[in-house]
User: Fold these one by one.
Assistant:
Number 1:
Amino acid sequence: MPSEKSRYVPAPPIPSYDEATAGDASSSRSPWPPSPSGLDARPDHEVEAQSLLSHGRPLDQARRAPAGYRPPHVETDDEGSEWTLEDDDDDSDADEAAQVRREMQELEIEDPLNDPNSSTSSWSKRMGFSRFSLPRWKWRWRLPRLTVRLPRQSDSDDANGQGTESSRTRLRWRFPTIKITSRDALLIFGRLLALAVVLGTVYLLFVSDLFGSMSRRFNGQMFDPEAVRQFVQLRVDSDQIRDSLRHFTSFAHIAGTEGDYALAMDVHNSFVKNAFDQVVVDEYYVYLNYPKKDGRAVEILSADGKKAIWTALLEEREVGGETAGHQTYAFHGHSKSGDVKGPLIYANYGSRSDFKKLADKGINTNGAIALVRHHGTQRNLGQKVKAAEMAGFVGCIVYSDPADNGFVKGEPAPQGRFMPSDGVQRGSVSLSNWVMGDVLTPGWESKEEKPRMKLDQTKGLVKIPSLPIAWRDAQVLLQHIEGFGEPCPKSWKGGVPDVKWWSGNSSSPIVRLKNEQDDNEKQKVWNIYAKIDGIEQGEKSIIIGNHRDAWAFGASEPNSGTAIMLDVARVFGELAARGWRPLRSIEFMSWDAEEYNMIGSTEFVEKNLDILQQQAFAYINLDGAVSGRDFHAAGSPMFRKLVTKVIDRVFDPVSNATLLALWREKKSDLESLGSESDYVPFQDMAGTSSLDISFGGEAHPSHSSYDNFHWMESIGDPEFVYHGLLAQVLALLVIELADRPILPFDLGNYAASLDRYLSELWQWTDKKGVSQGGDQKINLEPIREAIKHVEKSVKQFEQWEPYWEQNVIAANGWEPTGLGIRRLDYNNRMSTFETDLLDLEPGGGIPNRTQFKHVVFGPPLWDELDEAQFPAIRDAIEAEDWALAQTMIDKIAKIIDQAATTLVSVEGL
């Protein structure tokens, strides 16, 4: 709670790279930047024990402090002190001071703040001494020294030091004579009066909690903000990231396996080593499937269907080495068990429109086996299999075509970035756009005691078996259907060599697809959490998440993100150990079972849904963090301004430019979130503004055994430059979100984005032939009017931040209680604007997909759609249910309008 009147030192805006590196001539004497706060960002071997507070650091050696700030100083009774109690006996004073120093040295008294390895109490960490300094008194009055002189050993003492009877008597009974003149009495009275004033001031500051509450509320300002930014950037250790990635990719670690558990404990131990305030292991019991060694087969059968005349190799060659153990078998997560036979039919990318084209050509697909390729118009793997199921196929085979990710594009792995001939892209075929998380507990967490559906009850699983294969195996299959069905159009032709592209039909050779597997409906998985408590709004959190499980070795996906997150967590652990505390809590989370269906993160969100809707300010996601050199950011429109400022500070030494300059050169911008990683439950279910960051833009052997440490070290990011750069970006984002007095959200961009989303929806409906006039199938005007209300409210809302700054600056840095309370409420309203866009009515959310509550963002029913904004409206239009479409339009407009009203209901706005 803000104090009655609190001292606030305004944090300067985050400088660009050029501003941050600009300094005076003195800076050339050291390769490390000056640190006004005393927080040294140099490597450990360069750093002597230094305080995070600038005890006595001259201002001319550092950047000018904000107005109203005085660095603290330590006064002694040495010569030259401006506050002294010395008397005329200067030699005696010097002797006494020297004696005190010798005694302190003998006692080895240390200042814990000067020792980065020492721990300080939470009380001492929260005292903002760097913002307050004692007045430099210039008293020259002297209090007479009251000296009691004991007798010296007399010459009459014997050799053993025993005095005479008379001398011992004098030692016992002799008292000094104190002579106090009227002048001395006056001086004593003056000093006592001054002491009473000082004690009264101390009482006012500490007992009234004026001093203490201010330090708790702006403890992050104990340290110069720029020094903290420099610290987190320069403490990022690319070599340590490399070592972490080498370890995390040293063996396969599918969710729920022994390898996965071992790495979960490694993450846990790393968090414990960083001495976070809380470290938690959170277990869930979820449905997972695992392949059997001899339980999978793809075969071409003889004409009578009794004998295999060809069998697919299925597996990749071993690339992990002896120490890695056996690499993961090729399979699909959440696939259906089965052993089926049927004629083989090629169906391009496996979209609904592709299957419709087959039907339009008169090709009977009932009882057939589908062969489709990855990527393309149907990106979601599970929906490829579902579309085949809906078209009457009894099984589905998916392969990676070299025209999409192979030698046609460039050099294959391990020498290049593309999928080799034996590379298999594994993946999950659960229907994540329909049911997210554990498919047997949609809408509630998968704890052991909770109820569970049966496998045949859930809408989140496909009902036909499927397997992934390499293009070397697909080549044989495609060659065997030559002359059957129809010649393929150009858009259906891939890059597999020595193939004449035909569709196949019911007369094609018979193919057997066998997929027998181990099903575990209550497999234990492990999420690991760590937390640094905030000191002003500790209940509010900035969450950083990355999943740990991988289909194979997972160098890029996901463990480049794991290694980066662990290093950033280490840096923040060092900051906390030195006494720094954020205003809001910071939480690091290692998710499990993401590869299957975003299970770990979704179960956490479902368990903590109400808390997240009230307390989570932001979620930052890392997944396939590094696979290329182009920076990408996708997220809520809230983050555009912050991301732009942060990447303007991070310098790419390879391209010799800031990330912002490179971003603008490529005409990049903040992208929309998709539906393929752990940000989905936070953004679409809990309404937590979410951001996903990465370096990509180039192909890599995704979800194959070739996505390993050797590939990353030789091809992906040989010097681990981009791992280090992304760690810097992440650390700076966390600093700004967790420790700025006012959240750096961009509501203006949110309002503009809503208007753009509506325009895109309008254009999409026009392409669908949906009339906006005449017969009035639907009317989007209510949403347009609601967005206009948002724009007006945001404009009014954003006027308060400069008002707050002006008032604080005008008061010479003091923030009264009322203004502080309104600032906290301002932050809350800004963050809950996203939450206010949730449809929280009973049964609310997207019809038939009620896990997804956000009215603006959410996965489309079928990801053939170009955009996912306003998914409930799009679903209804796709189904040509005009009454439902209009109902959703009116409901969404009402929710957006109410969010705009709530935003400016803050007192004084």
Number 2:
Amino acid sequence: MTPENDLRGRHGARRAIAVAVGRYRDPAFPALASPVEDAKAMERVLTDEDLGGFDSVRLLLDPSRAEAEVSIYEFFANADPDDFLFAYFSGHGFVDEHNRYFLVMADSDPRRAPLTAISAEWLADCLHGCPAGRVVVVLDCCYAGRFLASIRPRGDVERVVIVSTSAVQLAHEGAPGPAGPKPSVFGAAFFDGIASGAADFDGNGWTSVREAFDHAVEKVRTSGHEQTPKMAGTVTGDFWLSRSPRRTSGLPQEVANLVNSPNPRARLAVVDELVALLTEGGGVETAAAEAALVALRADQDEQVRLASRRALAGRSVAASLEPVSTASADPYWYRKAVFYEIRVRSFADGDGDGVGDLRGLTRRLDYLQWTGVDCLVLSSIFDSPLRDDGYDVSDFTAIHPGLGTIGDLVELVDEAHRRRMRVVLDLVVNHTSDHHRWFQESRAGREGPYADFYVWRDTAESDDLNLPASETASAQWRYDPRRRQYYWHRFQPHSPDLNFDNPAVQESMLKVVRYWLELGVDGFRLVAAPFLYEREGDGEGLSETHDYIRRIREEIDKVYPGRILITEVGSEPRGAAGYFGGPDEGRECHVVQYDSLVPRLLLAMSQENHTPLSEVLRQAPPLRPDCQWGLFLRNGNELSLTGIDQEARDRLLRAYAPSPGMRTSLGIRRRLAALLDNDRAHLELAFSLLLSMPGAPFIYYGDEIAMGDNLALSGNQSVRTPMQWTPDRNAGFSASEPERLALPVIMDSVYGYQATNVEAQRRSRSLLRFLRRLIEVRRLNPAFAEGEFRLVTTTNAAVLAFVRVHEGAHVLCVTNFSRHPQAARLDLRGYLGSIPTELLGGGRFLRVEEAMYPLTLSGHGYYWLSL
């Protein structure tokens, strides 16, 4: 939908209401000056024909509870499906002795809150029952974060709820000025960003609710107040709240003429002049130059878009181009994100040649936004001879021609950002392809700038770099007849290891990082990062390796704030935690995935005993606020079993890979659904754990619809088959002839695309809809992403229980690993008197009356319970 159509309310009405209470009869509630100013600010912005253009805006100033309830009920109930509603509440919030949350009205009595104030549950019911297709609710009140627990998602409508504080914070008034009272800290930031156009981060001439929120978050953060706004909801696109005022004044006339020229060459030429104004101009010129560059970033001409992107990269204005401002009050977005891992070659074919590509992926972004994922992790897309699925890179600054162009990537990133999603690229840092120009120059002779880019020696007789077969069977020295020396490769002979002892190699890889960050990508997953340096022994995780990762992190923190580094480590949590770095040594990766979790989870399932999983969870050390674990059930490689003992390995192979064709030298080459026999209860249990355990979940493409594998394909190709979109030819993946597909689609009776596809699962009570619901509930409950993790003692070894705790919110997660119903008692002595409430369905359980709380679960059952 275009913003213009959206601002016309999809042919429906655009209505708003503001409930502002600053005067109270009961002295327990101090008088407030800002709420009335908040309401007036909202009215000015939304009724302005050049901005919000709302059909009606009603102000309720200091209403009684009865007056407010009637007006609020009618506002929500008397709506049509095409309407766009905006509701703003400013005033005191109150929590009674039973931990219930209320909005305080003029006649509210704290001793009789249920009778005199508006309860969060009642307001949530109004929101839930409202027939309008799109609704935005903003609560600028103390403790407003408590309202988020009352929200119940509806899949047929779109809702956004914004709260100006967490569940335990106060909302702050604006400091009075010479002209009198001012709007609140949050209200002023929210509406000023719309009125000034400063919230129009992408420069497209329109301000969305998300942009207004992001602008307000940054302003609240810099105000110095302890106040953390939050936003939750379910949307399939942007809520276009208003137009943005044009910000073209301030440029010299000749520069403005070039910016607005119909000639793309003129617009390309003006980029350098705008950059000069950014560094040399005054305040007005600098702001106008920034606005012009932001506008050119969305230019129709590809060269103009790329030039303006590079001009903005690294500058403070570049931060505001991200889905959430990279300089925002929430720099830890990745802690709350749900990641989605994509093999681009297998996801969607945009040009009909049988190979997935970036354009095809861009066309499927609406689906990904619908599922609720926040960040896309793309398999290696760089130019490559494709002997190792693209991870043998021949040019780090070019995209493989079969996948598209740099312009296609820029379009993908832009479109993802418009949908509030991010894009992270896989970057191999350990080695290159032997086709890479660096290696061709290096093997040409022992002199020259690239002679020492790789690890060379005269003989392979020394075994100081030889590795045990359990680490990698292919690591060895290989003779190159042209240079007449041996080069080292840890992985494949066609992938020689870079020599990071050479400062030129270090700087060259930093240039690669800068290059793609300048084009707008949101970070990298550093592939094979633990193996950068070669020393005696296996060389994994050397101090020199950590030093170099810290150097990359310093560059990102300094020039590209808000971008992230991810790495995968084949060790237990204690060892993997070293890749976060530390405040004394320096920070390293933002997100660390550790391989040992999945085998332990599968062991727990096969043994019907939680101990293998709870032991590894217990080992995970506490993390700093800027760190997060990365959790996954499967990915595009084999399920490695090298980190477990032989007895456990044999048990897993018997249970999950009984046939030799299902195995590799390191583990198992099967997809998640095939590992779990396509059992719906098993799959739901696995995903419920993935989204509730401490860490950020990574979902491998196709697992959300229980795609299967093709064991007739070699190696890990078995789990890299085309995404199954529809029951049509080629599973809707490609319009090419079937024989031209790079990999065949799955056609068997269980996992074949005719039965297993996105189109069918979007219409039914499917695994896809179940997972989407889990993601929604996870987003509405920040304890899952950011909460402290506490194991809970149970009397049944088949039942795992733990609590996630965050800002006063407590969520109890209980899982039954047995196929049979199980009864257990949980040690909830710290929660006596609480009433567990199921988050997925809203059911209320018996009050916790005794320390050991009795609970019964169905076979492979689970609960997410709010305490």
Number 3:
Amino acid sequence: MKDERIHKSLWTTTAHGRRFPLLQGDLTVDVVIAGGGITGLTTALLLKRAGKKVAVLEMHRLLSGQTGQTTAHLTELLDTPYATLRSDFGERGARMAAASSRAAIEQIATLVKELGIDCGFQRVPLYRYAETHLQLQELEKEVAAAQEAGLMVRFTQETPLPFPVKGALRLEDQAQFHPREYLLALAEQIEGDGCFLFEETRVVEVQDGTPCRVITDRGTVTAGEVVEATNSPLNRVFMQTKIYPYRTYAVAGPLEGPLEPGLYYDSQDPYHYIRTQRVQGVNYLIVGGEDHKVGTEENTQQRFDALEAYALRRFPVSTLTHRWSGQVIEPADGLAYIGRNSASKHTWVATGLSGTGLTWGTLAGMILSDLLLGRQNPYAALYDATRVKVRAGAKDFIQENAEVAFRFVADRLSRPDGCTLSEVAPGEGKILEVAGQKIAVYREEGGACHAVSPVCTHLGCHVHWNNAERSWDCPCHGARFSPTGQVLNGPAVKDLASKKLPPEANDAPSDGETP
């Protein structure tokens, strides 16, 4: 497990795209899209096909964000049970949620066929299975609710799993594919005819107006409309109260025994999700799970260890060749927020895509492109980004935002991890308190130390060290930073401030330290 290759996703190691240019100065287009994942690329392609000039801005490399960290399930079975959706959005709302997810899957299938994309797209059944009597009771309720919502679902006691279950929900005609191969093909269709894709171009400010101005670290893009397809919107305080960031983990390895292609979900809390994918002639098992709120897990390495143990114990694999994690944004009321952002005239968002990010990311592209083109979309009202459902998700809304308030205060009053550099081991990060101030310190394997402010540049909460991925993570709204303070995930747009280590930090000096 010390091989560094194991910390990359199966997708990024098996599909290598070309480099796209960096923005060089100012530019004017019809629509500027911040974010080069599935939402941004789908929106851009559909708008270009309708004759719009678009520019996609990606902070890092194209598809290096959350789309590159997915397990790539395409499904109508949502993280929020249909029984809950029916209660909160009514029978029609639940049926529309199912129909919209089906429409997104069919949109992907259409593009795969039209563009001749070799991405292993395959129609497969889904199984949500129960292993206890209590789980079985809940599962039977969900089967009934899903049937009422129009899904092709039934209860069964027969599954292809290599272990016995009490019963399972079987949902027909779901799908899976290699997401990076699919999206690299979409990206190749976007450039040209006045449309652009720019990598390593960070958006630092969005100015809503007539026209809008998107300020980046490499120039300003002027446009009539702006789409924030960044998983978590940039510095939108009200929206941040309605979405909650979670880390989710995945492992993959070559299958050494039979397992029929399909999407498999257990009923644990948090649940595990399993599937297979044939990549470069090898059948892989992919297992995800072990979700937790960003920045709240002290030892994230344990999450990988637990997931690996689960995969090796339950499925025909003996070696796991890949491990990775991603960021899931959960919505307060169970459905994604897609549409015009609150208090904006020309800024549009897609967030809260939950664990069905590829399905809902595609749906977001469909809804947003229609709205920007002035066309009616049958699902736009259901996913309206400005909605506030008072009853739906009220418990989670109160609990999550109370936790943010608690973290804002508690982390400032908490005991530091240490007081001197000698307490920071190679490859480790710690919050030190030196001369009355807290400093986030990371020590490289070679010994050199880097010091930054622990205060997140989004709304001022304190970051926590993530030991498995070597990053500083904010537990309030999910911003993540590299060991030396560069932004990895929004909603933050500014790096952590560099700090000069006070002389007191060197009470126990070690070779290679640099302030």
